[in-house]
Amino acid sequence: MTLATAPASAGSKAASDEFQLVVFELGDERYGLDIATVYEIIRYQPVTAVPQAPSFVEGVINLRGRIIPVVDLRRRFGMVAGELTKASRIVVCEAAGTRVGLVVDGVSEVLMVPADAIEQTPEVASGYDTQYLRGIAKLGERLVILLDLGGLFGETDAAALVAAAA
């Protein structure tokens, strides 16, 4: 699992014992991204549609002069479409070799997660189309599904994202 480790400080666990995650919601589920892959989190803003983009690509935004493709994670995961609210955010991160905005229902927190709280992805969720699942963090009664954006898009989808950003 390639998650950034937290810096070690005097009297704390070693740096390799904890991971720092950005936690966000889609529906009733919590997902986590390695904070090292996240550039910024912005409020949802209008998106310009791109013709013939994959169905889960909403379009593009202009973020301080840079064109960023915007992906609806609900559609990418085959979930029911959700309503945009004041809590909706675009998580700008690195995926498929380009900067991408991920539409999420809300961002709740940044967490330090002990390495021993992370379990492998269960067999029931380890099919071909789930290469982006890297494990599940058990935090008390809460579960956070860990994502690896490197596996989120196939070659065709990655090429479409790069083309949309060009």
Walk me through the structure.
It is a single chain. The chain is 9% helix and 44% strand. It has 166 residues and is mainly β. The chain has a single domain, classed as OB fold (Dihydrolipoamide Acetyltransferase, E2P), CATH 2.40.50. The longest helix has 11 residues, at 155-165. It is globular and about 45 Å long.
Q: What is the SS-derived class?
A: mainly beta
| The CATH architecture | Beta Barrel
**Largest beta sheet: strand ordering:** 8-1-2-11-10-9
Helix content: under 10%
What is the tally of beta strands?
11
What is the 3D shape? globular
- The overall pLDDT, averaged over residues, is 81
- The ordered string of helix (H) and strand (E) elements is EEEEEHEEEEEEH
How is the topology of this model organized?
Blueprint: E1 18-26, E2 29-34, E3 38-43, E4 57-63, E5 66-72, H1 73-76, E6 89-95, E7 98-104, E8 106-114, E9 118-119, E10 133-139, E11 142-147, H2 155-165
Parallel strand pairs: 2-11, 5-7
Antiparallel strand pairs: 1-2, 1-8, 3-6, 4-5, 6-7, 9-10, 10-11
Short structural description:
By secondary structure, the protein is mainly beta. The protein has two helices and eleven strands; from the N terminus they run E-E-E-E-E-H-E-E-E-E-E-E-H. Mean pLDDT is 81; it is low at 1-14.
